[in-house]
Amino acid sequence: MIFRCVLAVVVAAAVFVPVPAQAQTRVRFATFNASLNRGAEGQLVSDLSTPDNAQAKVIAEIVQRARPDVLLINEFDHDAAGAAARLFQDNYLSVGQGGARPISYPYRFTAPSNTGLASGFDLNNDGSAVTTPGAPGYGDDAYGFGAFPGQYGMVVYSKHPIDTRGVRTFQKFLWKDMPGAALPPGWYSAEELRVLRLSSKSHWDVPVRVGHRTVHLLASHPTPPTFDGAEDRNGHRNHDEIRLWADYTHPGRGGYLYDDRGRRGGLEPGAAFVIAGDQNADPNDGDSYQGAIHQLLDHPRIDGRSAPSSAGAAEAAALQGGANATHTGDPKYDTADFADTAPGNLRADYVLPARRLRAVGGGVFWPPQADPLSRLTGVFPFPSSDHRLVWLDVRMAAG
Fold first, then answer.
1. Rounded average pLDDT per 10-residue block, the chain, 399 residues
2. Beta sheet of 213-219, edge-to-edge order
3. CA dist., res. 251 & res. 318, Å (int)
4. Which domains does the chain have, with CATH numbers?
5. Are the CB atoms for 278 and 328 separated by under 8 Å?
6. How far apart are the first and last CA of the chain?
């Protein structure tokens, strides 16, 4: 089965700054739910076609300040030609924003998302199967919630070469084909289960070449465990979307998986990897089903001990009070600004390396109010996103 993807190689007009040889094995991986989604198909391409979109300028400056080497952006509308991904580089990342230095990513990867793809079934059980994009109820009946195909998609930017021939995508993997799947009892019909995909967007294994070594960026964006009913269908799905990577990286547990080209099995034992994305799951608080994120944090092959933090998140929780006051987790690890809605701010976004990789630093871009850069963060929809960029530095042995 052939999947459609877009890879672009672009040489930006940024000034080249040599990197000391001793730093070549230190790689910064980052994830950012940038909320660069729009309400209509083609609107993101239109917004990025000029260099003056206020939100895109702020998002680009955050990236330029954090300067990741490999970056996953969630909630970036997908288009088949990859125009939005190219325009964001050319008109925003390659242009210094707010006094920050431009940043160039010669390599990028994007591919289709299940969001906004009509399933043909009444997946929310409201009595009608909506198949007209944009119509009321369409998103709830799509394979992944979205008003049009590709809304809330993903894109990967990289300073290091991407092995496009080695990319694996799991957009079409069926939920029922996961052994012991946490399907909500009695909610989906047998006919629906024959077509229902597990991934609400997609799951990508993107091999990145760092020198002579390969690191697999495992990118995803599981559905929020909310916006449903007592059946908790989204909570169950979020759990199993997270489980996919837990099984994929555990030797002997991923044999049931098949990618969109028909290749079966999980990641090769011993392979280096970094899991990145908005997992929509907090280890202590929120609405997760059966502690979903602990499938990764407590995984024997994953380093869940390196938790990026920020002073701004801790300050925000103290100032906001409300729902945050009921949290049991340390607020300095929060990555999402949900202060205006229950259950308050959460740790939702993760960069989790394989244990064989050495984590040597990290952080969450959430400056405290006294920092001039706090102007770049705030409550959605202005000035940027309700999520914060999260990064982790890993040191790879020379090879």
1. 38 35 74 97 98 96 98 98 98 98 98 98 98 95 98 98 98 98 98 98 98 96 96 98 98 97 97 98 95 98 95 89 78 88 84 95 96 83 83 83
2. 168-169, 204-210, 213-219, 272-278, 349-353
3. 42
4. 6-115+150-395 (3.60.10.10)
5. no
6. 34
